[in-house]
Write a structure and sequence with these properties.
- With about 120 residues, the protein is of the alpha+beta class.
- The N and C termini lie far apart (about 35 Å).
- A five-stranded mixed beta sheet has the order 1-5-4-3-2.
- Helix content is about 30%, strand content about 50%.
- A hairpin with a 3-residue loop joins strand 2 and strand 3.
- Helix 1 packs antiparallel against helix 2.
- The chain has three helices and five strands, in the order ααβαββββ.
Length: about 120
């Protein structure tokens, strides 16, 4: 199995290219959870997350920028700092975000987004 830094770097490279659904398919555990801020965690594992992202990206009309500012690797935990600048059918989105991931056996089992406008 690859080391955590290699896995996180490869996952973040896919996100930076806009391949979020493909990144979930490759790196997420089947029963993983995803949580945005203080909202309840989304259940349904990898399949539900892929469906959520697919539906969201159907609303995106332009990607103005996806920027990875930094990443850090801990003991089974990684964090990355991002800016997502998107236009959607619901208006523009500018997210400044930290993604915290917990990893087990080379897969993301938990991801939490901390977003600031």
């Amino acid at each position: 199995m690859q080391d955590l830094k290699t896995l996180e770097t490869e996952l973040n490279a896919m996100i930076a290219k806009g391949a979020m659904v493909e990144a979930v398919e490759k790196f997420y555990a089947e029963d993983g959870e995803e949580q945005e801020g203080n909202q309840p965690a989304r259940k349904g594992g990898k399949k539900a997350q892929m469906e959520y992202l697919t539906a969201f990206f159907k609303t995106v009309t332009a990607v103005n920028g996806i920027t990875l500012h930094s990443q850090t690797i801990g003991d089974g935990v990684t964090m990355s700092e991002w800016t997502f600048d998107l236009n959607t059918t619901n208006g523009p989105i500018l997210w400044n975000e930290v993604l915290r991931r917990r990893w087990e056996n080379g897969k993301v089992v938990s991801e939490r987004f901390y977003t600031a406008a």
